[in-house]
């Protein structure tokens, strides 16, 4: 008789396990929203904390007027058309 009770207990346990697989758990319905794990967002937050979100720190270059128009002055308009084609 003890063997029959053990088998019935095992069967009821297995049936309960199968039933719980079909229904989602109550705690699983609450999803935790994680922040974006991309490298860009992590580095941006780090640089914001250190107040280093500027062109000089990001690109390791000083932005000035000579950098902006210095490269454009090297090419004539004919050369620039060749680069577009």
From TrEMBL:
GO biological process, one term: regulation of signal transduction
Keywords: ATP-binding, Kinase, Nucleotide-binding, Serine/threonine-protein kinase, Transferase
Keyword flag Kinase: yes
UniProt GO MF annotations: ATP binding; G protein-coupled receptor binding; G protein-coupled receptor kinase activity
Domain of life the protein comes from: Eukaryota
Record-given protein name: Jg8797 protein
Organism taxonomic ancestry: Eukaryota, Metazoa, Ecdysozoa, Arthropoda, Hexapoda
Gene giving rise to this polypeptide: jg8797
């Amino acid at each position: 008789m003890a063997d029959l009770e053990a088998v019935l207990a095992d069967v009821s346990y297995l049936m309960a396990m199968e039933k719980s697989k079909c229904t989602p758990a109550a705690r699983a319905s609450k999803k935790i929203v994680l922040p974006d794990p991309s490298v860009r967002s992590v580095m941006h937050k780090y640089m914001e904390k250190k107040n280093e979100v500027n062109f000089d720190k990001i690109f390791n270059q000083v932005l000035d007027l000579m950098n902006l128009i210095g490269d454009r002055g090297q090419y004539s308009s004919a050369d620039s058309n060749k680069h577009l084609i």
